[in-house]
Amino acid sequence: MTQAPANDLSAYWMPFTPNKAFKAAPRLFVAAEGQFYFTADGRKVRDGFSGLWCSGLGHCHPRIAEAIAAQARRLDYSPAFNFATPDAFRLATEIADQFPGALNHVFFTNSGSEAVDTALKMALAYHRARGEGSRTRLIGRINGYHGVGFGGVSVGGMPNNRKAFGPLLPGVDHLPFPYDAKVSGFTRGQPDRDPMAYLAELEALITLHDASTIAAVIVEPMIGSAGVFIPPAGYLARLREITAKHGVLLIFDEVITGFGRLGSPNGATFFGVEPDLCTMAKGVNNAAAPMGAVIASSQIHDTMMDATAFGIEFFHGYTYSAHPLAVAAGLATQAVLREEGVYARAAALAPLFEDLMHGLRDKPHVIDIRNLGLAGGLTLAADPEGPGRRGQALFLAAYEEGLSIRANGDTIAIAPILTSRPEDLEDIFSRLGRAFARLG
Ligand SMILES: Cc1ncc(COP(=O)(O)O)c(C=O)c1O
């Protein structure tokens, strides 16, 4: 067996990364503190994207790091099936306390993708348990991102994530993308547009397939990964009305909107709409260890519990569900969110963030800007040589200016750390301004 040299980059096949380009000019983070990463070649890079939407409290938060270290010494692993730790129940309760209404029961996973597949399976199993096993169809949305499991890719609506992987799950439809830059471009916050412009299709699908065949609709309350697109005012409330009327479950994928991104504990609370299931991950434990979760309504949970007289009620779970290290990080994260009033602080910072985002309007190639809470997205006109080149160029220029942002094709997303001070936001945007200047 050969020992690869420490700087051999060939063995690691990187996710969602242009591997060849990366390995020709790698960006290797070796440490982090607060709002900054430190690279192997001695750079200090401001985190303008909270990791990947996930480290809202900044990096290496001492309380979270200490909680993980102490847990690793006390109890490293406890079997997830037939055993549990007291802290897993504590964290579930703390999460449930932050979701509205009847959303009361938390099932732990290790990622957003697993949370999505879990929620879809819960929806199917719930209908079956209540004698409506014909409800098997799932409805997602164009440009939706629900992770990379087969379930999530099936209901997801990003073409590049789907096209290589065959027919995916059968019986899936997609709602229209609820945003049109031609009418809503450069809107601050939620566009003012008749939600039925985008929801009439749901009624048409229900008529076509009959409600008795449809299990659930899944949407991101705010579209994140596709580039921060905000649904029109009233869209989610109307979606709730239509799904409820037809006995179709509504799932909010809160992987990005959970735990503060909108200056609120979650999108359900922010938009004042109560779905039947929510997925979450990322901010639940500041991404200091892998963790995701699904929260289910009491109706779903109790139906599943009551349907089985003896034994396992839901044949689903992961070896690392409620992993003690992830739970320790989760409890510490939730304590910091609570004690430091992070949701309110993020909400208070949002107007400045909005102004800074929309201050980019006159930068070269910018053709749209959107924002909500501490999430911002902008679209660049595609380079004549092909889509995605300008987005990648701005991403690289930002890195040269010591700033990490996210590019998806020609859309750019900014997601500052939730505990930023105004001067942190200003520094993000001055670095971004210099990055635009490099684009020419
Ligand atoms: C809305 C949404 N759902 C699911 C996922 C997948 O999460 P993970 O990468 O943890 O599997 C993401 C990741 O960005 C997401 O934004």
Concise summary:
The protein is α/β, with parallel strands linked by helices and 440 residues long. The protein has 2 domains: 19-61 and 341-439, Aspartate Aminotransferase, domain 1; 67-339, Aspartate Aminotransferase, domain 2 (3-Layer(aba) Sandwich).
Task: Describe it.
Belongs to the class-III pyridoxal-phosphate-dependent aminotransferase family. Keywords: Aminotransferase, Pyridoxal phosphate, Transferase. GO terms for molecular function: pyridoxal phosphate binding; transaminase activity. The protein has 2 domains: 19-61 and 341-439, Aspartate Aminotransferase, domain 1 (Alpha-Beta Complex), CATH 3.90.1150.10; 67-339, Type I PLP-dependent aspartate aminotransferase-like (Major domain) (Aspartate Aminotransferase, domain 2, 3-Layer(aba) Sandwich). It has 16 helices and 15 strands. The chain has helices at 19-24, 50-53, 62-74, 86-96, 112-129, 150-155, 159-162, 181-184, 196-209, 235-245, 267-271, 298-307, 324-339, 342-358, 389-400, 422-439, and strands at 29-33, 36-39, 44-47, 103-109, 137-141, 172-175, 214-219, 249-253, 277-280, 292-297, 366-372, 375-380, 403-404, 406-408, 411-414. The strands form 3 sheets. The protein has a 7-stranded mixed sheet with strand order 4-10-9-8-7-5-6, with helices on both faces. A 4-stranded mixed sheet has the order 1-2-3-13. Strands 11-12-15-14 form a 4-stranded antiparallel sheet, with helices on one face. It is globular, with a radius of gyration of 22 Å. Bound molecules: pyridoxal-5'-phosphate. Pyridoxal-5'-phosphate (PLP) binds at residues 111-113, 116, 145-147, 220, 224-225, 253, 255-256, 281, 292.
